[in-house]
Amino acid sequence: MTTTTDFVLPPVTLRIGGEARTTGAGVHTHINPATGKAGAPVPLAGVSDVDDAVNAAHQVFAVWRATPAGARSKALLKLAQLVEEHTEDFVELAIADNGIARSNAYPTVTAATDWIRYYAGWADKLPLGRITSVVGAGGSFGHTLRQPYGVIGAIITWNAPLMSLAMKVPAALAAGNTVVVKPSELTPFSAMLFADLVTEAGIPDGVFNVIPGGPEAGAALVEHKLVKKVTFTGGPDTARKISAACAKTFKPVVLELGGKSANLVFADADLEAAAMHSTFMAFGIMSGQACALPTRLLVQDSIYDAFVATIGQIAASFPVGDPQDIGTVCGPVINEAAIERIHSMVGRAQEEGARLVTGGQRLAGDLADGFFYPPTVLADVAPSSELAQKEVFGPVLAITRFSDEAEAIALANGTDYGLSGYIWTGDARRAIRVTEALETGEVTVNGAMNAVAERPFGGIGHSGTGNEGGLEGLEEFFWTKSVAYGNG
Ligand code: NAD
Fold first, then answer.
1. Topology adopted by domain 14-257+464-483
2. Is 389 helix (H, G, I), strand (E, B) or coil?
3. Is 258 in the pocket of ligand 1 (CB under 6 A)?
4. Known catalytic residue: 19?
5. What tens digit of pLDDT does each residue of 299-341 get?
């Protein structure tokens, strides 16, 4: 299969203090997930590049924090406008980065624009503290100051690079911090255009720096003395290393990790809507490679068999193929290693007693050279099995039955993760009860969309700590100073 357009990819460079560096400490060769073909060289930042980037961000911090809030807001609004104007370019870059289907890429750019604009709005309305008086009326005057940290180290993964930038960078900049971002070496392209537009928006050199790189660059960024806070999006194994490194100097860290989110379908739900939504969310968003997707479908006994059959039929009809084709819903997964991980988990699930309903084999023919795995449904998945407990990060849906509300809640809460919860029911009181009982950072009921800029997003347990989005996401980028004035 060929998957090309006339779009010319930008060269990948390190962006440090406004300078574009073409070399780092090594080179990664980008692989197009749809064709398996090698493409652009990606320079990898080394420890000295990380040091330079952090120093550049540190040097300009005093200038940026002293920039009038109105000017910071204006620059971020300009950035939002520029990203919006470059929608078509970002769509091409997203497809090149990780093979996301074109139909998926458009809403991602729209969402990224919303997030930038949302935090641009906060920049000149910052919740800067509160006035207090000690010992009640007539006591000494005091107040709190909300202060930017300085240099923020941001480490992001490959599944949605533009979205991850938009969820972290505008909030950090609105609060007056400067940022060094390390994108995954697998997906460097979107960050290149983003960096160009940051400059075009009038944000001073060094306020935003990009250092594509691997684990070594990430570790150096986390450990750098001038990095005052870390914000990370990725998997729990890396998060453990980052947490341990941060613990050495008590550096604060936001961790946005994975999930095994349960989707509870009760017999009293709108079953047609539930089936369409459950299937689309499992397979039709980034080929199942997103953190908050409902990858565990819990279905009530009385409707179980018919519902599983419907899910299998819808999943089997999903258009899988060339991400450039606007009719494609599922593109490839990221790389060969992902195919192997996904396929081996599907195999082990069957050994543990799950029943394969559809999918389960890497796609061949025209798609053989790319990394294509079909929507795969497994039913009768035992709650304690690997497939019910571990994130796959691919187009695989695990279905388990439950008898009543109490069992549904126990199953939903029965993993180490706590990112998202999905509920389908026609009973409003049940929706409220179950919402309260789910141990997750977010809950959506009857197909609502929640990943929006104005509400916080983040997990508990192995899904992480801290938030992106909303006022909570902004507050991650301040520390609080308590100030008191005496009479002397
Ligand atoms: P990963 O943890 O392997 O890599 C993420 C980033 O960390 C990459 O940039 C990588 O180079 C860097 N890294 C690797 N080792 C490092 C180290 N020792 N120190 C510092 N940085 C290091 O993540 P992945 O497996 O590629 O990404 C998929 C995971 O990301 C899934 O678990 C998914 O659920 C999660 N994710 C979470 C969210 C969210 O917002 N909660 C969003 C997207 C993806």
1. Aldehyde Dehydrogenase; Chain A, domain 1 (3.40.605)
2. helix
3. yes
4. no
5. 999 999 999 999 999 999 999 999 999 999 999 999 999 999 9
